[in-house]
Structures are given as structure tokens and as C-alpha cells.
Write a structure and sequence with these properties.
Rossmann fold, 6-stranded parallel β-sheet, amino-acid biosynthesis, alpha/beta, binds 5,10-Methenyltetrahydrofolate, 2 domains
Length: about 290
């Protein structure tokens, strides 16, 4: 049986460290979250983020806009948040309603406040190994891996998924850890065989329980990024499952993250960490400019 990582406990200790650092600052970091439309699952995340932001001593600014919001109105809000000195981090919850141009909205976010690490600037900085803001979920995964594995030099890492928010940045971070990195995805041939080569397997493809127990190398470390809501056994109820068939995988893997209670809580903790990083950088740059 694999060792099951408790992401909730790890995230709690991360947040305690963030709270302790926030308490020493001469200013209060502020994090703005923008939610367009009323997807119930998104609403829960936004509420959790807001609560935890306040718990670590930061200010939370929530903007809930109707689903019919226009591109111009959303752009205007992002620009106002860019200009607002009380706001150090901006997160626009994705996916946006279909009539909105997501790329243009992301491009409008000031890279200094881009706590999701989604702007071309932050993606480029990450690809070049330069300090920027790193997407929260990838950062959370790397923190878990560093804690459990320490030095990852020479290990085979397989990332299943190629999104800008998760797959691509995780691959960059694993390269920085000296892993040999393969990026696979839903169209990859012989996906099971490729997964089986992984010492570290990152499942971020967004397909519930795609990755089976017999795709996993015995003793491998499996990080399940998937958050899929599926019908539960009880009629009318739903449950969260990952991209990994957990009950099988737990028999084969050496270390594994569960869903829920694995990567999800780390994502929010890393969002707060990015907000703190952004706030410190913005405020020290301001100080320099003023002196
Ligand atoms: N710009 C943007 N950045 C995001 O990072 C982003 C986003 N948009 N859109 C939506 C997804 C989803 N997401 C989650 C974060 C934490 C949990 C989380 O904490 N989950 C808990 C359980 C939550 C529950 O039970 O519902 C867990 O896995 O244990 C889940 C999902 C961030 N996202």
C-alpha cells in the first residue's frame, strides 16, 4: 500500500508560515478574485479562497460579475485592479463564459499581480528559469514532491496533460529539479506504456480515473491533479474523483495524493503564497521608486 500524502495538513502548515510572515509586514497584502457567471463549483472555490485569504491576514476583494458581462466591462475591471494600490494579486477564475476572449483578459493582467502565473510574461520567465510568479497548482505539486522525495535528479517524470495552467508549467518545474520529463496527453499513443516508465507521474488531463493501477510503475510517486465531479452511488449526489483510479493505484504506487485532500488544498495555499510574493515585490519596488 502506498503512503498517502495529506495535502490538507501540508497546506495548513504552509498557510501558518504565510500568516506568520504577513504579520511582520508594514502593509497588508490584498488579493482580488474575479468570478464571472454563477457556476456553483467555482463559487465554492471562490468562497474558500476568500476565507483563507482573510485567515492569513490578507485583504480579500471579491468581484462576482453576471454571466452576460461584456469583454469591455471585464477588461475595465482588470485595469481598475491593476491600478488599485491595495490589490497585489489578481485571479480571474477560469473558464470564462464562451463569449469572452480569455487570452485578451489574461493579457490585460499586470504580470506583477498575476498570481496565477498565466500571463505570457510569467510563462516566459518560468520557461527561462527566471524569477516570476509560478502557477499555484504546479507550485503545490513541486512542494509536495520536494517534501517527500528531496533530490529528484535523474528521475523519469511523466506529466499527463498539457494545459497552460498545469501541465506545461509543471513540466518546467520538474526540469528545474533535473528530472527527465515527458509530456503526454489525451492523444498520446500507448499512454499506459509511457506512464509505466514514470518514477514521478503527474495526472493533469481532466479525465476521471483515466490512469489505471496497471499503468503505474511499482513504487512510483503519483500526484493526482484532477478534480472531476461525477455522480455518486447515491442518486442525485455527486463526488470528487481524480484523474487516477485511486483504489487500484494505491496498491501499486509508493506515494500517492488523494482527491479530495491532496493537491486541491495546496493550490489555494500556493495562491496565498504567490499573493505574498507579489505584494512584497510590488511594495519593495515602490519603496525604491519613492526614495
Ligand atoms: N484562474 C484560475 N486559477 C485556478 O487555480 C482555478 C481556476 N481558475 N478555476 C477553477 C480551478 C479549480 N481550482 C481548485 C482549487 C482548489 C480546490 C480544492 O481545494 N479542492 C478540495 C476539495 C473541494 C471540494 O470538496 O469541493 C480538495 O481537492 O481537497 C479545487 C479546485 C482552482 N482553479
Amino acid at each position: 500500500m502506498a503512503d498517502i500524502i495529506d495535502g490538507k495538513i501540508f497546506a495548513e502548515s504552509l498557510r501558518a508560515g504565510i500568516a506568520a510572515e504577513v504579520a511582520t509586514l508594514a502593509f497588508t497584502p490584498g488579493l482580488a478574485v474575479v468570478l464571472v457567471g454563477d457556476d456553483p463549483a467555482s463559487k465554492v472555490y471562490v468562497a474558500n479562497k476568500a476565507r483563507q485569504t482573510v485567515e492569513v491576514g490578507m485583504r480579500s476583494f471579491e468581484h462576482r460579475l453576471p454571466a452576460e458581462t461584456t469583454q469591455a466591462d471585464l477588461l475595465a475591471l482588470v485595469q481598475a485592479l491593476n491600478a488599485d494600490a491595495a490589490v497585489h494579486g489578481i485571479l480571474v477564475q477560469l473558464p470564462l463564459p464562451k463569449h469572452l476572449n480569455t487570452e485578451a483578459i489574461i493579457a490585460a493582467i499586470s504580470p506583477a499581480k498575476d498570481v496565477d502565473g498565466l500571463t505570457v510574461t510569467n510563462a516566459g520567465l518560468l520557461a527561462n528559469g527566471l524569477p516570476g510568479l509560478v502557477p499555484c497548482t504546479p507550485l503545490g505539486c513541486i512542494l509536495l514532491l520536494q517534501d517527500r522525495l528531496g533530490d529528484m535528479t535523474g528521475l523519469n517524470a511523466v506529466v499527463v496533460g498539457r494545459s497552460n495552467l498545469v501541465g506545461k508549467p509543471i513540466a518546467q518545474l520538474l526540469l528545474q529539479q533535473n528530472c527527465t520529463v515527458t509530456i503526454a496527453h489525451s492523444k498520446t499513443r500507448n499512454l499506459d506504456q509511457i506512464c509505466k516508465t514514470a518514477d514521478i507521474l503527474i495526472a493533469a488531463v481532466g479525465r476521471s480515473e483515466l490512469i489505471k493501477g496497471n499503468w503505474i510503475k511499482p513504487g512510483a510517486t503519483v500526484i493526482d491533479v484532477g478534480i472531476n465531479r461525477v455522480p455518486a452511488a447515491e442518486p442525485g449526489k455527486t463526488k470528487l474523483v481524480g484523474d487516477v483510479a485511486f483504489s487500484e493505484a494505491v496498491q501499486v504506487a509508493g506515494i500517492i495524493t488523494p482527491v479530495p485532500g491532496g493537491v486541491g488544498p495546496m493550490t489555494i495555499a500556493c495562491l496565498l503564497r504567490n499573493a505574498l510574493t507579489a505584494a512584497k515585490r510590488i511594495e519593495t519596488t515602490l519603496e525604491k521608486e519613492l526614495s
